[in-house]
Each structure stands twice: as C-alpha cells, then as structure tokens.
Write a structure and sequence with these properties.
Helix content is 4%, strand content 44%. It is elongated, with a radius of gyration of 31 Å. The protein is mostly beta strands. The protein is built from 2 helices and 36 strands. The protein has a 31-stranded mixed sheet that branches. A 5-stranded parallel sheet has the order 26-28-30-33-36, with no helix packed on it.
Amino acid sequence: MVFFSRPFPARQSSSIPGRRRRSGLRPTAGRRASLAAARLGPRARLAVMARLSGGDLSISLPAADDVLAEIVSDGTNYTVSGTGLSATQFPIASVTGVIYVGGGAGLDSQTFRVLAGEPLANPIGVSSDIETTELRAGINATVAGNVNIDSPSLIIGPGSPVSVSTSATNSFVFVNGAMELRNDASFMSGSGLISLGSVSGTGGQALFLGTLNQSGSVVINGNVSLPSGFMVTAAAAFPIFFNGDTNSISLPQFDNTGILQIGKAGGTSTFSGGLSATRASGVSLAGVIETVDAPLTLGGVSIRADTTLRSGSGTITTGAVSDGVSSRTLTLGSLTQTCAVTRGGSVTSDALATAAGDFGVSLLGVSNAI
C-alpha cells in the first residue's frame, strides 16, 4: 500500500490587511492619558475641575476660552462651580492649606470669581493664565500663606466693600495686574509686604491701606487713577511707595508715620482735592506734585529727581527740603499760581526756581543752602 503524504500549506504571513501586528509594548502613560481624555468626550474635557489634596483646594480651568470658575463661602463650606461643573462642596475645616487656581496658557476670557458671601478663610494663589479675577467677597486668610493674585486684571466688586488680609507673620499680599475698583477695597498684611499693580476707579471708591498693626511696606507699582476717589492709610509706622508715572487721587488721607514716596522723574501726581502729608517720617518726591486750587501741605521733604510743587490758588507749605548729594532742581508754583509758598524749614538744594506767577515765597528756615 502506498501512502501519500498530505502536503503542508505554505506558511502564511501573520499580517492581516488593515490590521497591525501587536508589538507587545504597552502604551505610555501620556498615551493612556490621551486615550482616557478622548473617551471622556468634549464636555468633560472642558469642564472646570476642583479637588482637595493634602489640605490644598485646587481649581483648574481647562484649556479653552470663555471658561468661568466660581467659589463661595458660607462660613462652613466652600462651594465651587463653573463651566461644566455643578456645585461641589468642600468643608472649610478640611482646607488647611492654600486655594490654588490655574488655567490654560495663552487663552482668552478665563475668569475666576469669588461670589458674595463670607470671606475666604484661606490664602489663595491665582496664576497669570487666569485672565480676570473678580472679588465680590473678601479674603481673610487665617491660615499661614500668601495672597497672590497674578491675573492681568482684578475687579473689586460690585456689591459690598471687599477686604483682603493675611494674619500670619510675614505673609504678603501680591496683586500683579491692573486693579479696577467698583467698590471700596481694603488691603492689610501686618508685617508682610503689600504689592499692587495699577489701581483705577471711575466713581467715588476708596482704597484703604494697612491697619493699626501694619508694619510691612505698601508698594504701588503702576499708575493710580482715582480722580473722584479716596485713599486712606492707617495711622501706623509703615512706608508707602508710589512708583507709577501718573497718579490722580481726588482726596488722599496719609496717616501713616513711615516714609511716603510719591512720583517719578518726568511724571505727574495730581491730588485735586488737596494733599496733606505731615505725619510721615519723611516725604520723598519726584516729578510734578500738584493740587487743583487746594492746599498742599507736607512735612520734611527730600527730592529724588527734579521736582515741581504747584497748587493754583491753594497754599503750599513744607518743612525742611533737601536734595541729598545730587544736583536736582526744585521748582515752586506755575504760571497760574496765586497763593503763597512757605518753607518752614531749611532748604538744601542745588537749584531752587520759581515760576513766573503772581505769588509770594517765604523761606523761614534757620539756614538755607541753595
């Protein structure tokens, strides 16, 4: 009997058209995250997210334009909501650290809003990716940490006046962007620094700086525009520095007893309702310092750059005046000056000039070196 062996078919490729052969490698963590995000759907990927981790409350705005996140405190819970996120509560007692708010870089109209309610009891950090921060309630940080709002725009109000404060030693308050007052605002930091960007308000808003226990410096790095508004500083030993080119305040009340620095070389600072700064340990001036037909009354003055004092029909009165060791010119009055200028202390200046106006000048110091 003859046996015929059945021929084996030729070996076929394991490749199947339209299908890749498995390599046995697993996807990377980044790839897995991308796949997971794809399965979530577009709405979930664009939703505001909030979570509590290690005592810190993190609020994340997604990588999309026109996104809003909101937080409100009732004194017991923080409630966070926003685009794609329904109201989610976090017990305040569980938030033992900082509230962090971040967004997507290079996006437009991302907004973080603190709704009217009880003040937030925790320090807060808002990244510069959040275009606008709105405070309709205050921040009274009783937990150690800083208040750091890095948004390009900060809006105070509308609604009730807003207070921002830290209580921990050396904790600072930092506002980097342009602050618009739609209601009164107070900033307090004890021994910590208060650093503000520009400040503006179109109504009769007031800006209050410091408390009776304030010792940390107050620095305003941008221009101040409160042409119908007010500024009040607490009667405490802390310095204030105006570093903007142009300042306009209707009626300031400088009660601080530390140094008061106003103006910048080539700039103009206008106090339309008058300026009185006699409690400060020293007043440092630069540029044009003026009132609009209202008294301009200063204590001891040092000039950091060429300086002009003018007040129209208002009197100008100062204590001793010094320009240090540099060559600087102090100019008194303007073409429209009609009221007298009185120097109650000694004048030490490289140059003293008076404008060609109809006003008198009295130098009452014991010794003058000009």
